[in-house]
Each structure stands twice: as C-alpha cells, then as structure tokens.
C-alpha cells in the first residue's frame, strides 16, 4: 500500500498493538507518545493519516489536530479517546477530524475507518 500512518498515543501497549496490527495490514506505521514528538515527525515525513488520542502529555490531541489541519488541510486525522463526550466529538469533527472513535479500540473498526479515510 505504501501509505504512511502516524499513531500518537501515550499508552505504550495500545500504541504498540495498533502499530503491529496496521503494519500487518501493509501500512508503514510510526508511533510516538506525545504531540510534540508528532509535530517533529510530521515535519520530516509525509503522512497520509494520523491517529491521535485526545489526552496526551503537553499539547493535547485536539490542539494537534488543529495544527495539523492548518499545515496540511488534506491530512486525515482520526481522534481516539477513552473520555468521549458529545462536545469533544463535535469539536473534533468541526476542526476537521475524519472520525472520532471511543476506546477500547476494536481492530476491525479502526482498519475499516482507516480504509475509508484513505479513499476519501
């Protein structure tokens, strides 16, 4: 596929699990634990899609979404969170997130959402 994905998740177990599953699907996957590391990595590589948690140390996932969309409006971003609310879901979609998923993340669900995002 040759599609580059970035996972921004401070929970190491989930980040590694998603990286493994998506690599098996043929994606080129990088994982980082903070928005600051994500911004550095995004400056160096051309990602097609970013999956980010909302609650992160330092810059949160919503702020990362805003910065990513300012720099690259065509970049697809999927928000994941364990603390879902209608307010954050609406804010994420209005800011330009492709989708908003609630943890625990189901591997089949995220694979389908990624596929749709990359086709959009």
Largest sheet: 5 strands, parallel
Question: What sort of overall outline do the alpha carbons produce when their principal axes are compared?
Answer: globular
For the record, the CATH architecture stands as 3-Layer(aba) Sandwich
User: Strand-residue fraction?
Assistant: 15-25%
Structural class: alpha/beta
The number of E-state strands comes to 5
Count of folded domains: 1
Helix content: 40-55%
Oligomer: single chain
What is the CATH topology descriptor? Rossmann fold
Mean pLDDT: 95
CATH top level is Alpha Beta
What report would you give on this structure?
The structure is a single chain. This protein has 120 residues and is of the alpha/beta class. The chain has one domain: Response regulator (Rossmann fold, 3-Layer(aba) Sandwich). The chain has helices at residues 12-24, 35-44, 61-71, 86-95, 107-119; strands spanning 4-8, 28-32, 49-53, 76-81, 99-102. The radius of gyration is 13 Å and the shape is globular.
What descriptors fit this protein?
single chain, 120 residues, alpha/beta, Rossmann fold, five-stranded parallel sheet, 5 helices, 5 strands, 48% helix, globular
């Amino acid at each position: 596929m040759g599609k580059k994905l970035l996972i921004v998740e401070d929970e190491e177990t989930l980040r590694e699990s998603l990286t493994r599953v998506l690599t098996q699907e043929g994606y080129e996957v990088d994982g980082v634990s903070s928005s600051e590391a994500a911004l550095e990595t995004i400056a160096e590589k051309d990602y097609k899609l970013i999956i980010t948690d909302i609650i992160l140390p330092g810059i949160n996932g919503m702020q990362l979404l805003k910065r990513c969309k300012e720099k690259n409006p065509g970049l697809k971003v999927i928000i994941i969170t364990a603390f879902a609310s209608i307010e954050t879901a609406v804010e994420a979609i209005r800011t330009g997130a492709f989708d908003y998923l609630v943890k625990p993340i189901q591997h089949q669900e995220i694979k389908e959402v990624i596929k749709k995002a990359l086709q959009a």
